[in-house]
Known about the structure:
By secondary structure, the protein is mainly alpha-helical. It has one domain (50-176). The chain has seven helices and no strands. The chain has helices spanning 2-7, 14-20, 23-46, 51-84, 87-94, 96-131, 139-176. The radius of gyration is 19 Å and the shape is elongated.
Amino acid sequence: MEIIMSKREKPFGWKNMLCNYTLCEFAKDSTFPLIISFLLCVMAAVSSLDIYKQLLKLLQIGISIVPLMAAFILTAYTIILSFFMGEKCKDIKDDSKGKELIENLNSSFAVCLFASAASIIVLVVATCIANMEFISVYSNWVNYPTYFIVCYLTVFSISVLVGIIIDIYNIGQTTIL
Length: 177
């Protein structure tokens, strides 16, 4: 990670954001959503449920929840940005560990917002396609992977809230110290 960070030329952009949010952190954040998505797909297959109907229900749930999660993340991010601009944060930024904390919090929120935005795009496109009601012999070959992806993105968008709540708490604690 030091090699990547030492090579960056600008403190802005995707490369810098992804430099602070590592693949290891993404894997850790993805474990629970992957397990839930896999289990739901297996349960749907074993119980012979109509995966198309299940996909439509999941899309409705996702469309109603994920934009709200994105709004919550954006609100929390705004609160954190106001903290970054405050007097207390100047002391924290002077310390190398404090600066690293701020960079990691900033990257964490940016990645969560990106994931929520990507989820919303996938949910809208998948809903539009599902509403076209294509009939095909291979529809389950499309519906099961789509169900898995939509389920993963929806659960991921919800599960990252736990980390965001902890980040907000940590920032609150730094104002006390």
